[in-house]
Fold this sequence. Notes:
The complex is a heterodimer.
Chain A: E1 3-7, H1 11-21, E2 23-27, E3 36-38, H2 57-60, E4 64-73, E5 76-81, E6 88-93, H3 95-107, H4 115-122, E7 124-129, H5 140-143, E8 155-159, E9 163-168, H6 171-177, E10 183-184, H7 187-203, H8 213-218, H9 225-232, H10 246-249, E11 257-263, E12 269-276, H11 297-308, H12 325-329, H13 336-343
Chain B: E1 6-11, H1 17-23, H2 26-35, E2 37-41, E3 53-59, H3 65-76, E4 78-84, H4 86-90, H5 102-109, E5 132-134, H6 141-153, H7 164-170, H8 176-180, H9 196-199, H10 216-225, H11 230-241
Parallel strand pairs in B: 1-2, 1-3, 3-4, 4-5
Amino acid sequence: MNSYNIEKKDMNILLDRFLEDYKVFGPTRPGADSTFDEITSIKQLHLDYTSTVLPPKKFFHPPKETLFSFELKNDKFTTKESIQDKKILILGIHPCDVHAILKLDKFFSTDFSDTYYQNRRKNTVLVAINCVEPSEHSFCSSMGTGPYLDEGYDILLTDIGTKYLVEIGSKTGQKLVEGVNLRKATETDFHEKERRLKLMEKKIKKFMNTTWLPRIARENLDHEVWLDLGEHGGVDGSFPCLSCGSCSLVCPTCYCYDVYDTMDLSLISGTRNRELDSCQLLEYGEVALGDNFRRDRKDRIRHWMLCKFGAAAGGKNSSCVGCGRCIRVCPSKIDLTEVAKVIRGGKQR
Amino acid sequence: MNEKPKIAIFKFTGCAGCQLEFLHLEEIFLDILELFDISYWVMVKRDNDETGWDISLVEGGISTPEEIEEIKQIRMKTKFLVAFGDCAIGGCIPSIRNWTPQLDAESQVYRDTSVIQSTKVFGIGEYVKVDAILKGCPAHRDTIVELLKSALLEIRPRLRQHPVCVECKFRDNACLITSKKMACMGPVTSAGCGAICPSLGRECEGCFGPMSNPNTSALASIFKDLGFNEKDIKRKFRKYAGMSPEFRKEAGH
C-alpha cells in the first residue's frame, strides 16, 4: 500500500477531503478526558489527546439505540427496522481502540450476525493515529495492541515532527487521498516513525504479564483478592469496589447489552430498544422471581476481571486491549494489572 | 377497556414538586386522561371523588399523628399504593430534622410549641404497605409514565436501580471524582435523572436516593481520602435519604 506525508499545518486539506464524503468524528479535547465528537473544522480536532472517556465503540454499539418499532393493527403485528446507514469517518483512533473494534467485529459476526452493528461498521472509515504519548494508565504493549498499529485501518497517521506520515491500509483509504496533493513518503519519514515509536514504547510504565493468565485466573476463583476487591479494599491501595459499572461502560471491548420494549401511550405501538449493560450492576445477574447469580460485589468484580483476563466465554471474544480507561475512571483506584500480579502470586500485599 | 382505572394523588409532608412533575407532562397529559380517570387531586381539581381508587400516588413523608391516620385510610381505599418521590419513600429533605431533638426543632420555628403535634418524619412505608416506589426529588416524569403504562399492561415497570454513573458514562462525561476530585454521590445514588448535575459539571447530590446494594462505606472513605471532613460526609448522606437503611450508617446513626 502507498504512503505519503503531509505537513501538520496542512491537515485541514485532508480533513476537508474527508468532509466531502463523510460525517467526521474525532477527539475534541487534549488530555485523557477527551471525547469523540463531530468535527467540522480543523480547530476542533485534538490529535494530541491521550485518551477519551468513551471509546469509539459508541459509534457501532451505542449506549442506547432503537432496534425497530412495532405496531398492532387489525390484530396483526407489523415491525419496522431502524436502519443506520450514515457514512461516518472516525479520525484519530489510537491502535488499542482499533484492536478493540477488531475484537467487537469478531463478536458481532462470528456466532451470530448482528445487523445493527454491522450496518454501522461497514459504513465507517477508520483513520487511525499511532500513539506517541501514552497515558499513565496504558499497558497496550503488554497486550500486543499498541503503541503502533499494523492492521485494521483505512488510513494510518504517525506524528513525525512537523509532518504526519500517512499510510494507506485499504482501497477506501486510497480513494480518499486521491486528488489530494500529498507528497510520497521518504525513507527518512519511515526512519523517524521507527525512532519515535521506539521512544514511545519506553514511556509506557504499566505492564501486565499475560502468559497463562486465562488459566491462572480460572484456577484462582477462590483467591482472597476477590473479597478484598469487593469488600475490604487494600489491593495496591484500592478502596472497596462501588459496583458503579464505570469500568465496563468505558471498556472498548465490553459488549454486554440489555434489550427491552417501550410502549407508546396508545398501547398498540412501541419500540424495541437496546442499551449497554454492565456485569457490575446488581440487576445484571437477576432472573425471574428475583433470584440473582451474582448478588455479591466480589462475584461481580471477579466476573468482569476474568472476562478481561481472557478467562470468560472460553476466552474467545472479550478480553483487554490495555487502553487503561478502567483504571483511570475507577473512583476506588482498582487497577486490574495489580490484580493480575496478585493472582499470579508475584506480589505480596 | 370498559372503565378507566381511577387514580388519586395525595400530598403529605413535602413540597408538591412531585405533583408538579406529573402536571408538567403537558404534551401527553391528554393521552393520560384518555387512559385514566384522575378522580382525586386536590391541587388541580375542584370536585374530588373519595370513594376509592385503583392507583394512589402519595407524595410526602408522614410527620404528624393526623397524617398517620390519613395514610391508613388511603391504604384501605386503594388497590395499588405508590410512594411518589423521595419524601414518601423515606422522608427525604424534611427528615433532616430527625437528627435534632423534637422540641429543639419545633421551638426553632414556633414560639408556642403547645399547638404543635409532630412526630419524626418517616416515609409512608413506616405505617402502611407500599406496592411500588417512584424514586427522585422530584420523581422523574418518565418513570411516572412508565409505571402507569405498566399498570395498564400488567407488566413489571422498567425502573432502573443502578447508579447515576451509568447514565453519566452514557453521556460521555469524565468522572468528577477521579478527574476533578469532587465529592460526587453518583456511585451510590439511583439513576433516573439522566445524570443532569454531573453533565453540567456539578457533583451528584443524591436526590434519587440509594441505588440497589450501594457500597456507602467505600464511598465515604473515598470522600475522606479526597479531603472532606466527617461532618460534611454525614451531611451528604443525610440530605435526601438519611433515613434509608442503605444510607443510615453513613448519615450518622
